# Entry
Amino acid sequence: MMASDPNCIFCKIVKGEIPSFKLYEDAETLAFMDINPVHDGHCLVIPKAHSATVFEIAPEDFAAAARTTAKLARAVKAAIPCDGFNLMQSNGEGAGQSVGHLHLHIVPRKSGDGLLFNWEPKPGERDRIAAIAERIRKLL
Ligand code: AMP
Ligand code: ZN
# Structure
């Protein structure tokens, strides 16, 4: 039995209990239009099995979602004139996740649209980067 949460809006979409603008479906994944698009062509890819974030998802489900995302990205790129393309996936409220069923956003971009991360990359301290890399490596 595939994991499903009766209170989850995306699980309800998977089960057909609420409508969606469905784009594609296979055994493991579903792709549908985002109903609050930041641009034309903004759509979502989900694994059908419920998991909240990247921390819980089975690697096979994440891999399946990645396969479907690459497939969808090519079709959206062909359908929508755009200057670039972001894939976006948020985990946890602190990262702006509003629906607790893992999903990947496919977001066509236009030059100068000012969307998404307002981050400011700046050269880091090498010692600090190295120490953090070591901390992460030990946990793999
Ligand atoms: P996030 O903020 O990354 O959790 O993204 C959740 C996304 O789901 C938002 O962009 C919403 O517009 C979208 N969304 C919420 N409910 C629905 C729905 N019923 N059908 C399609 N998209 C939805
Ligand atoms: Zn769900």
Q: What stands out?
A: The pocket of zinc ion (ligand 2) is lined by residues 5, 8, 10-11, 50, 101 (CB under 6 Å).
